[in-house]
Amino acid sequence: MSKESPFSPEQTYALVNFKPLTGQPEQPDFNAIIIDDNGRISATCSVQDIPEHIEKIDLHGLTVSPGFIDLQLNGCGGVLFNADISADTLDTMHEANLRSGCTAFLPTLITSVDEDMRRAIQVTREYMAKHPHRIPGVHLEGPYLNKERKGIHNPEIIRTPSAEMIDYICDNADVVAMMTLAPESCPEGTIEKLSKAGIVVSLGHTNATCTQAKIAEQAGASFATHLHNAMSPLGSREPGVVGAVFDSQRLGAGIIADGHHLAFENLRIAHRIMGDRLVLVTDATTPAGTEMETFLFAGQTIYHKDGKCTNADGTLAGSALTMIEAVANSIDAGIDANAVIRMATINAARAIHQAQNMGSIAIGQYANLAIFNDSFQMCGTVSGGTLKLNQQ
To answer: Got the DSSP string for 128-177?
Structure first.
């Protein structure tokens, strides 16, 4: 028997006998979710209100939350988007994601040549047309970065943006959900143009001062990439990008809760200051969800050991984190469970202007759900209406 049992109904069905963990305690109580054959939620209600003709699926007391959303995913399940920009890679990433409760993600292309950026946009466009509930867009992380904060990115192709490429990216703003850049490395007007086109501009791999980061926010930047990592730190007299994010009322930020990218004290501090502006991301790479010990990334051999990914000189190279691990780690760190679920779901959806489609258990949303036990072990998912339960 296969490990997973898929249920792809041709008609409406209902999930019953579960514990909802919506992230929104003010939401009216419900103990049933009705999912239409169009792959969306049509009702959250009481079991007795389910029409008799609708099939009921018993979840035996498991917890159900909105499906997790990862805004920074380089790869997982043995594949890497940079290494193979194809629909097959996205399929593999999606299947690996489901094993960790992640039902939607932004495939992330780190610093690349223009040809690969164009291909990533085109492949994502075609995939979105087929699977809009899985991928709300692509995340271009670079190449318009500061070499002093390059991390694992290839410094030979980090560059200043050309007017032609910025125009191309803006022309494809319906596909480019997020772009990470260093504001000090871009010509004046770049952030404003990208933002006005509808792209979420995220500050990352940057050595900007606090003042430069605030000017970028005024120009339209609304997010920061992997908070604390590859950015100017909070100092007593120069607050840096971290200080600008903390001092803002608007800037959101992704954060990697794996215990390697930052101390859990910093996770708690960031959440205490930012609240629902904070978003859990994995920044995962090839070995996430596998036992792989080495892989190639940005032209370098990367070593994976005990959940940590580094190159030969010890530079962090993404992570092997999964979303369910990020959720469990954050709760273990002392953050309230409902707040953590928001960090993994609705906060992410709001950050990329997708809250009307995903991030909640609500009527009209894509039927994207995570199903797990009290120990935060994944037991199943619903993805675009397709239920997949792990065999126990």
So the answer is: HHH-TTT-S-EEEE-SS--GGG-TTS-TTT--PPPHHHHHHHHHTTTTEE
251-287: buried (b, 16+ CB within 10 Å) or exposed (e) per residue? bbbbbbbbbbbbebebbeebbeebeebbbbbbbbbbb
Query: What's the mean pLDDT in 371-376?
Result: 96
Tell me: the pLDDT tens digits for 315-333?
999 999 999 999 999 999 9
For residue 19, name the pLDDT band (cuts at 50, 70, 90): very high
To which H or E segment does residue 253 belong?
A: strand 252-256
Q: Which of 212, 207, 216, 202 is nearest to 147 (CA)?
A: 207
In a domain, 357, yes or no: no
- Nearest to 348, CA basis, from 170, 168, 104, 121: 104
Residue range of the domain that includes 163 = 68-351
Catalytic residue among 283, 306, 332, 336: 283
pLDDT digits (tens, 9 = 90+) for 283-293: 999 999 999 99
The CATH number assigned to the domain holding 58 equals 2.30.40.10
Residue 148 belongs to domain with CATH number: 3.20.20.140
In terms of domains, do 127 and 100 share one? yes
Q: What is the pTM (predicted TM-score) of this model?
A: 0.96
Confirm whether 283 is a catalytic residue: yes
